[in-house]
Amino acid sequence: MSSTQGGLPASGARGTARATPTTPHSPATARHPLRTAIIGGGPGGLYTAVLLKRLAPDREVTVWERNAPDDTFGFGVVLSDETLGGIEHADPAVYAALQADFVRWDDIHITHRGSRRTSTGHGFAALGRRRLLEILHDRCRTLGVDLRFRAEAPHPDRLAREYDLVVAADGVHSTTRATYRDAFRPRLTAHRCRYIWLAADFAFDAFRFDIAETEHGVMQLHGYPYAPDASTVIVEMREEVWKAAGFDELDEAESTARCAKIFTDALGGRPLKSNKSAWTTFRTVVNARWSHGNVVLLGDAAHTAHFSIGSGTKLAVEDALALAACLEEQPTVDEALTAYEEERRPVVASTQRAAKASLEWFEDLSRYLDQPPRRFAFNLLTRSRRVTHDNLRLRDPRFTESVEREFGCPPGTPPMFTPFRLRGLTLRNRVVVSPMDMYSATDGVPGDFHLVHLGARALGGAGLVMTEMVCVSEQGRITPGCAGLYTGRQAEAWRRITDFVHAQAPGTAIGVQLGHSGRKGSTRLMWEGMDEPLPEGNWPLVAPSPLPYRPGGQVPRELTRAQLTDVREQFTAAAHRAARAGFDLLELHCAHGYLLSGFLSPLTNRRTDAYGGSPEKRLRFPLEVFDAVRAVWPEDRPMTVRVSATDWAEGGTSPEEAVAIARAFAAHGADAVDVSTGQVVADERPEFGRSYQAPFADRIRHEAGVPVIAVGAISSWDDVNSLILAGRADLCALARPHLYDPHWTLHAAAEQGYEGPGVVWPAPYRAGSRRPVTGRTDGPRPRLTLHAGRQDV
């Protein structure tokens, strides 16, 4: 039986040719009645059986389940309205049965340090897992599905020979996946918390999150009703807390009683009950491929998502809907399985990113305990990035407004339009135009392109506009088109741009990012071949160690002590020119594998002198440069530092080291840390996704105690409001959105109906401050709707 259990829901490319199991069954078309074997009688497997039988009543469908019909683990299952809508269209009979048994509620209670905060409007629906299975069992029997309980399925090789299709819905511990591990190439990741699945014999009046700060550490309760007289209760804590509290030495009954005692207030002094409950560590399952010949993975066998966003049963049911639809639409099984994976993989990947963000939030819960109660509640609710500031504002405006008041937002002011002070500079809003290399300078001199590019974005309303990385020497350029600040002529050209910004976009600050390319220099313009060496006219490179950025690339010379002094003086000379050019803020570029970043990462710094080895020694030269620049940069003007908080590569900068790096720069006078990631080594493996770098900024903000700028696929004003209000960032830097729309911040204000000091429309643009009227868009059609002749069998 699938081990998926319900929790709190947050409101691909074609693969290579699949290998074939041993002596496969003769090919069959997808629309031809398929002899189908289903391994696993959990919700995903059973619902697949229902759908396939409804689509073709003469299809032979057999389900093997090793457990008894009423033998289930866990207690309640939560399904979203989206999933229920798919069920309603595909099988009204199952939908009607579910509707009759669902418990529905709207509220979430969050209890933290004796204070309970409630958010409403969330629309949950849950029922008992056992009842869900009963409904699916009854529907399978009505349709003529062959259900075989207390029966081990035959070996997958045999099923693949004897059946046209084999659906492996055998859960997180899938034996089918293990049998064909070389084909599926699974990756299982264990996480840092222990949890146990329990129940209470009464119904909570809301979804509950209760935080207990014990002598052993922080513990949390996730609870929700699933029947008029029953609730699911999950108790979770870090592994080290679990051991310190002695749970590793308690049996099931003792653990259950101990959890009830710890959360006696949430339970009203009532006991908890278990059902073969055991402490376990959640494991995220990812497979490189989901099918192998005529064998296909479904549900937890293919993928898992942490229970804190309630996606296990939801994903399995949606897998079943998509698989059935693809089998109906495609001419062959092979094409159907390819289409199924192409459809579901991006959806699942998005859900798994959200689940990862949620589970990591709970793993690091202690980081947020000192937040004010309303902000803590908002942070918890938006942890997965699926629920956002705008979602909550629509669902529960009173709650959201109370969080905004606690944060300090004036009435009617979104968080992104509140001011932020860095040293002597007050930014009128929290939006930063992120540094973006334009590769459009001549001899390092910014020209009309830079004036128009930066000037347009300054007119667009952002609180701070940053230049691209401005190089401190000719040798320190990335490409021949990079801008510099190593000559007086370059400084004069920059002065023209800062004068424009200050005169035409008063209230907007402009900052300069200073850097040196290091081993990543002497390359072509980005659109001619990113990171590729120049065909001619290359200049020699320098770096902490003689390591090329890419295999076969130019090998840099290792910097000598004398050259380190020269580089430091190049930075200070550029900082002098930047001050005279009128920049309001200076950022030192210590990220993305450029020279100073190269000193910080153990993957690029192999020195054995005082500037290499331990993290403290790797920090030494970047701090020397920072100190030298800070000494010549005007005292009232802020300095920030951009760092790569991870190299996305084994053996690179660790999260703990990233926090230590941020602390060190803050101790030396950095006013904020601009937290980016990666681009340090060519063989990196980033985990891309919406706001994917924000968790690194969050960690540095809370653990290093320094203001942070978050970057990385922050694409909407809703993301900015959410990150700022939750306390995960102080400023948000956006790059590509500002390439798409130079007036992104002005339009964000218009779309939110905001008019105030946080953003000012230039007088000539005021006529455009109202959002244009757009045409209607129709919603998507249901994924699987059966024809009238198939409504009941």
Walkthrough of the structure:
The protein has 793 residues and is of the alpha/beta class. 36% of the residues lie in helices and 18% in strands. It is built from 26 helices and 28 strands. The chain has an 8-stranded parallel beta barrel, surrounded by 7 helices. α1 (43-55) packs parallel to α11. It starts with 35 loop residues before the first strand and ends in a 42-residue tail after the last helix. Mean pLDDT is 91; it is low at 1-27 and 788-793. Residues 36-352 form the FAD-binding domain. InterPro entries: Aldolase_TIM, FAD-bd, FAD/NAD-bd_sf, OxRdtase_FMN_N, YqjM-like. Residues 10-31 have a biased composition (Low complexity).
Brief synopsis:
Helix content is 36%, strand content 18%. It is α/β, with parallel strands linked by helices and 793 residues long.
Q: Per the principal axes of the C-alpha atoms, what is the gross shape? A: globular
Q: Rg to the nearest angstrom?
A: 29 Å
Q: Strand arrangement, largest sheet?
A: 19-20-21-24-25-26-27-28
The termini sit apart by 26 Å
The percent range for helix content is 25-40%
Total strand segments: 28
What count of helical segments does DSSP give?
A: 26
Low-confidence stretches: 1-27, 788-793
Strand content: 15-25%
Oligomer category: single chain
Rounded mean pLDDT score? 91
Instruction: Report the biggest beta sheet as strand number plus sense, adding barrel if it closes.
Output: 8 strands, parallel, barrel
